[in-house]
Every structure is written in structure tokens, then in C-alpha cells.
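Sanity check record (used in CI):
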Amino acid sequence: MYQPPAFREDRLDVMHGLMRAHPLAMLVTAGEGGLMANLIPFLIDPAGSEKGLLRAHLARANEQLTALRAGAEAMVLFQGPNAYVTPNWYATKAETHKVVPTWNYATVHAWGTPRILESTDWLRQQVGELTDASEKSQARAWSVDDAPEPFLAGQMKGIVGLEIPIARIEGKWKVSQNRPAADREGVIDGLRQSDHPMAELVAERYKPASD
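Expected output for FMN-binding negative transcriptional regulator:
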């Protein structure tokens, strides 16, 4: 992806953190049928390979399986918070008016060769781990074990597992790093007025001058 140095993010733990916080990612493949893309929730296992291992499952009827089974490189796009930035938040607007709107965002792109898994035990574990990770914010968490076993067995027949050892990974945090300090403070204040999560991402990358 296009990565100006100011926006580049190379820290593996930071990129993995975004992937955990925003697990629904775009799985992109290129096969005989051309480019295909599907939104799939992924889990990231930091210890699964040098750069991490992605795990997921998808419907057995999903046509993208043809490309995945062929073993060609797949791309997975994780999208974090994003926000429109109005020039009205910039202090320099009042000084020069030489400002334009932009968009702030954080994203991680990962590439790797997919592996298809059909073991019932693997699928049961993956579905359970994904459910537990997704339900942890609920006051009364639902568990896979809450469903009748015969029903679960039938559901497992309709899905296949997917693992993608990450061979290459890139992160981009475009959060106003290229703006003067006063403009960045204005962006933080503007976003905080609407309780937008992007405000904290901008604040994390902003280090005001010490007194």
C-alpha cells in the first residue's frame, strides 16, 4: 500500500492489536475466476508464525474456496477507525486558508499462502475461540456449548477452516502526523466533541512540546 514515512507502522504488536480490535477483515484472492473478496472474521495468533497466524472459517459453498484451495497468495485487509477531518479544525485555516479536507484512518494489510482445514476438532475449537473473543463484552456471554450438540455437528458440516501464516504485513496510521501541532490539537478536540475513537489514535501519535 502507499505508505509515506510519517504514516508507516512497522511494530508487530501494534498491528496485531488493531487486528484483534477489528477482526472483521476483507479476504482478497485472485484465481481463475478473477479477483474475489469476502468479509470474514479472523483471529490472530501471534505465536503461530514469525509474523503471526490468521485463523478463520467460511461457508463450504463460498466460491472463493476454489482460489484458496489453489494455494495462491491471499491478502487480508483489516480496517480500524476512520474519520473525515474538516479544515475548520485546523488553526492554520484562520491564518492562511491554505488547507483542504482529508480522511484519517488506521489499517493493516497482511499477505500469506492459505491452508484449508476440514478437521471437525479444529473447526469446533476455532468457532469456540472466535465466539469467546466476540462475546467477552456481553453482560451474559453466549458459548458454543450452549447449543445442542447435534445442531452444532450439522453446522460444522457446512463450513471449512482457513489458516494464513503471515508472510508479509504492513500497517498505516494516517492520523494527522503531517500537520502542525496546533492543527493536530484542533483535530483531537474536534473528534472528541463527537466521542469519535479516532481522537485517541491522533492523541497517541501526538507528543506536545514540553513546557
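Residues 43 and 129 are 8 Å apart (CA to CA). If this sentence no longer matches the regenerated C-alpha cells, the check is flagged for review.
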